[in-house]
Each structure stands twice: as structure tokens, then as C-alpha cells.
Amino acid sequence: MPLIAPSMLSADFLHLEKDVETVNSCADIFHLDIMDGVLVPNISYGFPVVEAIASKASKPMDAHLMIIHPEKYVERFAKTGAAMLSAHLEAMEDPSAVMGLIRSCGMKAGIAFNPDMPVEKVFRYLDCCDFVLVMSVFAGFGGQKFIESTYERIRTLKSEIDRRGLDVRIEVDGGVSPANSSALAAAGADILVAGSAVFKSDDPVAVVKAMK
Ligand code: DX5
Ligand code: ZN
User: Fold this and answer.
1) Which residues does the annotation say bind substrate (predicted)?
2) pTM over 0.85
3) HSE (side-chain half, CA atoms, 13 Å) at 144
4) Annotated binding residue 7
5) Which residue of 10, 61, 65, 147 sits with most ligand 1 atoms within 8 Å of its CB, as the best mutation to test the pocket?
6) Potential cystine with 45: which of 49, 55, 104, 109 (Cβ 3.0-4.6 Å)?
């Protein structure tokens, strides 16, 4: 059964505690999208919001850094209590070093990459990360349409991980909903991130249950 990670980007920021409690009650992981307006053409939220969520979260937090120079903020995210931290392959000069830094701060280390990055480019870093974040939309905004070629990318990645006998999870992010969750899990995804499908629905708990 996949783990479900609601993306708080689509939460109701005027009633954030309510949406944090929803995740606590029915989902597995808090997915936190951090955007700098430079690596991606949007700005999301920063530490005050992450710390507010942390103060009420009873499930692990997974911060997805869509920022340049991610290495500058690894220690600060560790201090928020984040359990998982991913940075984009497009933003790292030395991905192995960044993954090592994340692990040395006690977090699971993930490599994220956009849909136009050949999936094979991540193969050489599979030994130094704990999870791979496959973007199924271009990073930057919630509510985009799922890109169908993602299934094939996940299958390719999954077979490489299995062939090498590695302990690396696959997380998929963007346009994920009950309509594609079982096919994504069948392709090899372990963690499903969903923002608008969960929080823009009338019944977020039912949506999370349907995805499980
Ligand atoms: C996009 C973010 C996603 C986004 C997902 O750059 O990484 O986590 O919030 O939102 P939905 O599920 O609406 O595509
Ligand atoms: Zn994300």
C-alpha cells in the first residue's frame, strides 16, 4: 500500500490547523513545497509556516526544496524536525555531497527532478539517496495536469533500483489523484503526493482513503 503525502501548498492557510489535523487523522506524511521564485517561477512559503505545521504535526514532514543552493538550508530544515528532505537535481552542483549533508543531519535524503530530465541521469546517485522524487508535472505550481509518461519513468527507475538491490523509495508528485493512484503504485511508486485532489475536495479524508 502506498503512503499518502498531502501537499500543504493546497491547504487553507487561513485555517491551517484544520488541514494539519486532517493529515494527522488520515494520511502518512506532510509534503511541504518550498519555492524560491528562482529555480521555479513561483514563491510558496518559508520557515514560519513550516514551524507552525511542525508544532501540530503528528506525522513525519517531507520538505521538497525547489530552490537554488539547497545545501544552504539543510541544517535549518533539520531543526524544524523534517524527517525527509529532497533537493532538485537541476539545482545541485554536487548531488552526492548534498545527499550526504542531508543524511548527516539525520534526515532521509531525496533527489527530485523535472519531467524533462532523462530518468537515467539519477541512476548514478541512487547509492547516496534514500528516495527519488519523480515530478509528474513541472515543479512550481499545484493543480497542474498529470503527465502520462511518468508511468514509464517510474517503471524504468524501479527496475534499476531492484536490479541493484537498493533500498530507495520512489515518490511521485504532481497531478496525483484517486484516478491514477493505483496505476502509479503498480508502476512502483511508494509515496504519492497530492495537493489539490485532497484539499480542493469536499471530503479530503475520503480522497486519501480512495488513494490508499
Ligand atoms: C509542485 C509541487 C507539488 C504540488 C502538487 O511544484 O511540488 O507538490 O503541490 O500539487 P497537485 O497535487 O495539485 O498537483
Ligand atoms: Zn512537491
Assistant:
1) 7, 64, 140-143, 173-175, 195-196
2) yes
3) 16
4) yes
5) 10
6) 49
